[in-house]
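Morning run. Coffee first, then this:
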Amino acid sequence: MGRSGTQFRVVAWWKGRDSFGYAAESLNDERQRRVVQSMSESPKPFKKPPKRHVPKGLSILYEDRDILVVDKASGLLTVSTEKVRENTAYYLLTTYVRKGNQKSRRRVVIVHRLDRDTSGVMVFAKDETAKRFLQEAWPGFRKKYYALVHGAPPEKEGVITSYLAENSAHKVYSVSDAKNGKLARTGYRVLKTSAKYSLLEIDLLTGRKNQIRVQLADQGCPVAGDKKYGPGDKGIKRLTLHAASLTILHPFSKKEMTFETGLPVYFETLLRSSNRTASGER
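And here it is:
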């Protein structure tokens, strides 16, 4: 079971056209055929470390000799900072692949990052060759997120386009001049609405820092629980942004693989509670 309380699946998707009109490996359940790929199908024989070594805050979704895919909890850093050295996904997973043997030279290699307060699917490489392949191919991989936002975007479905820059305080913001920022494009579709919130399915079309959070805030619908780009939201326990699905090509076999987790239960809880509050229920 994933952290959201629903089972994850490893899925191979047929090539098609996505919900925003771009030719791609679509993640749209309603439009594309899918074939369940066996978890046991690994490019090379591989034996996982014992379950006792699986770290807290991370659920192992898939593992073989080349890659390790996890569901990261909200609040867990990807890599260390000056203040936090060991309670990170990188440190914990390196300890995991070493099976508790600190003299082992095995380690995981960072391919990409998720913000500390964003939960969801991450892939780590097992060596530099796998890392290079994944990073070079990364722009073409498909990434789907769920975001619970305040209010609602102006349209039920669309693509947000802007140029993003970062100031000296490491805060990202939109600029109108392409010379002063990097192009960022975020596709979205409204899945559900309540009296206070909207649940969006996000297609990350570019991968800029804090892109989803900044662009949704620009639309007047910041991600709930966002203390950096939103109103702060007293009483909301976490940033309601979740990396729900990732489609990659395996660095060894070159097979297409999709890793999914479900919608976090907390997102549904906030949706229901706002409707009860609006109707006067308790």
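The chain has one domain: 10-263. Good start to the day.
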